[in-house]
Automatic annotation (TrEMBL):
<keyword id="KW-0472">Membrane</keyword>
<dbReference type="Pfam" id="PF07963">
    <property type="entry name" value="N_methyl"/>
</dbReference>
<dbReference type="GO" id="GO:0015628">
    <property type="term" value="P:protein secretion by the type II secretion system"/>
</dbReference>
<dbReference type="InterPro" id="IPR012902">
    <property type="entry name" value="N_methyl_site"/>
</dbReference>
<dbReference type="InterPro" id="IPR000983">
    <property type="entry name" value="Bac_GSPG_pilin"/>
</dbReference>
<keyword id="KW-0812">Transmembrane</keyword>
<dbReference type="InterPro" id="IPR045584">
    <property type="entry name" value="Pilin-like"/>
</dbReference>
<keyword id="KW-0488">Methylation</keyword>
<keyword id="KW-1133">Transmembrane helix</keyword>
<feature type="transmembrane region" description="Helical">
    <location>
        <begin position="12"/>
        <end position="36"/>
    </location>
</feature>
<dbReference type="GO" id="GO:0016020">
    <property type="term" value="C:membrane"/>
</dbReference>
<dbReference type="GO" id="GO:0015627">
    <property type="term" value="C:type II protein secretion system complex"/>
</dbReference>
<protein>
    <submittedName>
        <fullName>Type II secretion system protein G</fullName>
    </submittedName>
</protein>
Length: 166
């Protein structure tokens, strides 16, 4: 015959068991979380590459439809560049409301923001785009005489490639 007091029923976890589970979860979180933070940087870099690819293709499309002239050719103002890509235009580059001219718009809305610095403005330069030093003050650097555009972003990606060389 058994004595009812010698056998104890367990109704929960002991403090030691709970601490072991918490420590194991902490170790797993410490190994997994850093990889998730890298994904956000990779996503921004990928978005920048896609934005630049889209801008370059639309600049080239503009050139093809405007007798070899790039958007804002002969101008030094950002507004001329933005209007050339976001409004309709004729073959001479004269802009007008959407639908009033035979060409464009090439970008709907506005220039996409540079995901690395959040800027969607454009610095217009007359020198080589590759020689321009990025300073994060605007989203992009553009030369209207050559049609070259690059990110105005300092820093390097995970492969040690300068952002402004994308």
């Amino acid at each position: 015959m058994r004595c009812p007091n010698t056998r104890r029923q367990r109704r929960g976890f002991t403090l030691v068991e709970v601490l072991i589970v918490v420590v194991i979860l902490g170790i797993l979180a410490a190994t997994v979380l850093p990889s998730f933070t890298d994904f956000s940087g990779d996503a921004r870099e990928s978005a920048l590459k896609q934005n630049l690819q889209m801008l370059r293709s639309q600049i080239e499309m503009y050139r093809l439809e405007h007798n070899g002239k790039f958007p804002a050719n002969g101008s030094t103002t950002e507004s001329d560049f933005i209007e050339a890509l976001t409004l309709s235009s004729d073959t001479n580059g004269t802009t007008g409301a959407i639908g009033t001219k035979p060409h464009g718009p090439y970008i709907v809305g506005s220039v996409p923001a540079n995901p690395l610095n959040g800027e969607n403005s454009v610095t217009i330069i007359a020198t080589s785009v590759s020689a321009a030093t990025p300073d994060d003050s605007t989203g992009y650097i553009y030369n209207p005489s050559t049609g070259q555009i690059k990110a105005n972003s300092t820093g390097v990606d995970a492969d040690n490639v300068d952002y402004d060389s994308y």
